[in-house]
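Board notes (copied after class):
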Amino acid sequence: MLGAAPGAASGQVFVATQPKPEFTIGPLFIRANVEPKHGPIEVSVLWSLVVPATSSGSLAQDLYLLWPGEVDGEPVAGPPDPEIRRTVEARGFQVTHEGRLPLAARAIYSGRDRPKPEPIAGGAPFVTFTREAGPLGQGAPASWIRIRWTPRLIDRAWLIELRMRLTGLRRQKQATWLENALWGERHVVTLSFNDVRTRATFPMYLAYRDRVVHLADDPSQLIVSFADADHLKIHEVYPGSSQRRSSETRRATEIVSAYLDPSEGIRPQVLSVQFGYFTGWKAWSPLLFATVFFVLGNLAGPLVTMLVKTVGARLQGRIQFGPPGGAPGQRETGTIVSREALALISPGETTHAEVLKLCGPDPEERERLSEPGRRTLVYRGRRVVPHRQRRLGWLATVHRWDVEHHEVEIELEGDRVLDVQAQVNRTRLTQPGPA
């Protein structure tokens, strides 16, 4: 499934202003809210800072969030920040977009006296930048986001929330038109943390790697929420340890989450979900198509069988397969009594047992009630002889078929032969036909 996921998953790295920061990030929640309609996906990043008890000195410093991808969001009053623009341009990047993202502090306690979210004035200024175009074209963009210091960052009763809209988070999975018709369109949404593998993010990470803020031991998660779960089909989830559950606060919402392991360091941790929304008749499409194929299969079965038998019979009547010097491929059915066997039968001398031995043990027997002691043994057979026309190796075409109908009547009186009658009827056919 990772082969169908976007090549550059959305990831995050927190960077402090000063080297070797004493604090860590925890808890951290990166949530993507997926809707059935196509368009930008709302993403929220909620976090707090964990300060060790042995910390000394001032902790007040700005944070930076390195995000692989282009970001946008609700407009926030204030001009772009020229300082962060100069920072990325000084490293040879090209700024493609800049602005401010909504930033607020949210109380984690619930109840009637719960404080309302506190918007942080000025929001979070950002710039989106790219590297110069290479032989394969323009690389993926990245964003450098500044979070100004606020005492709420170290207040255990509050979490800082950064909201943005991402246009490239949802990617359509490549499929054939038949797969899309049967199962509907499928998409892949991917979240990750500590992913700095793109051409735009890695130089920034390398420049500030001594300022990277690591995760604390507090529970941190990557979360994808799917609205309209009644029409949702989740096909695959990676990693397998991810959890699926229904939302406790939102109706008809499915949640897929994965815990972040702080012991992984800077190693990317990924949550990828392959999903699809179905509406109307597509909800029944697997059953409908299965029913249609079942009906068509039962209807087409006799037609195909008849066609195969007809074509096979025609080919069998027109083509012979065998060695060039072999027998002509004649066919016999029933019992054909040879002329030599008939010559050995002598009226008045040959017995019933000798007739059966010469002609065959299973004749048809007729007896007349008006003539007791007399009975007639009848042998019938059919011989079909092909006449070949052209030959190519072991293959030969058949011009016509000679059909011989043999019938022999042997009349007995008592146990001795009284009379023998034999006749042969010959006809010519283009097909051998049934016996």
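Comment from the instructor: Residues 309 and 320 are 17 Å apart (CA to CA). Confidence is low (pLDDT under 50) at residues 1-9.
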